[in-house]
Amino acid sequence: MKVNYHTHTTRCMHAKGSDEDFVKAAIEAGFDRIGFSDHTPWNYQGFVSGMRMHKAELPGYVGSVRALQEKYRGQIEILLGLECEFFRPRLDWLKEQIAQYGLDYIILGHHFSKDEPRGTYNGSLHTPAQLRTYAQDVLDAMDSGLFAYIAHPDIFMRGYPVFDKTCERISRAIIEKALATDTPLEFNLLGLSHGNADGKQGYPFPAFWRMAGEAHVKAIVGVDAHQPAAYLDTAKFDWACETLRWLGAEPVTEIRLFSQPK
Ligand SMILES: [Zn+2]
Ligand SMILES: [Zn+2]
User: Which of 68, 103, 146, 172 is a good FRET partner for 9, with 20 to 30 A between their CA atoms?
Assistant: First the structure.
């Protein structure tokens, strides 16, 4: 089984290609199952995010993915999801959308701490207190049982200068909670292609994944496709699966779904 549950669409304003082009690329690359998990809208009042669909676009997104699911039935299995932060005051609204649109799953992509308007971007943290806030959100997200897996759990190393004692402590806490709640952690291929051109290692961060491997976490490779061509780098995908096994993690292909796939 070759799967990827992390696919975006142009609705988030930083992706390229038609929804269908992602499906065609996934078929070409030999995937058996993919999931769309574009950046979720939120119930913002007055604030307009520059990195996610507007809530008025959600029905169109759902309709498009469901139509592709039908069109490509028998060739590739397509699931409908969203990538969501853990914004406590907005979770009830999110749960309503999940129920209303019959989403198959959501993944945690915790880009901001507390909230997006006036929140802190978790890829540019620089104090231990910020790390602890990030970690607490991720732990609570796993306890909520809402999330099929945790995308780029090590996003904090995109900005944090060194993997210090606090990084080690929060990584340990995230890994232990992943084990306790049976939640896979994502090895993110988009982060891998960021490289370290800006002098930062970013994610997947080696020290985090060495710890995760030693603890034998369930791990999932996420293409985090923001363009159809991301699917075609199958050498990178295969390398990631190999690396996870070598580290001691357990690569998985199944995730918890809200519903049986339609
Ligand atoms: Zn994105
Ligand atoms: Zn993503």
Answer: 146
Which chain residues have CB less than 5 Å from ligand 2, an ion?
83, 224
What is the rounded end-to-end Cα distance, in angstroms, of the chain? Answer: 18
Give residue limits of the domains in the chain.
3-251
- Topology (CATH) of 3-251: TIM Barrel (3.20.20)
Q: Are 111 and 119 in contact (CB under 8 A)?
A: no
For the stretch 86-101, pLDDT in tens is 999 999 999 999 999 9
Residues 49-86 pLDDT 10s: 999 999 999 999 999 999 999 999 999 999 999 999 99
Q: pTM higher than 0.90 for the full model? A: yes
Q: Ligand 1: distance of its center to the CA of 200 in Å?
A: 19
Residue 152: which of 110, 212, 200 has the closest Cα? 110
Provide the 3-class DSSP secondary structure of residue 192.
Answer: helix
Close Cβ partners of 252 (under 8 Å, ≥ 6 residues apart): 184, 218, 219, 220
Whose atoms come closest to the Cα of 7: which ligand?
Answer: 2
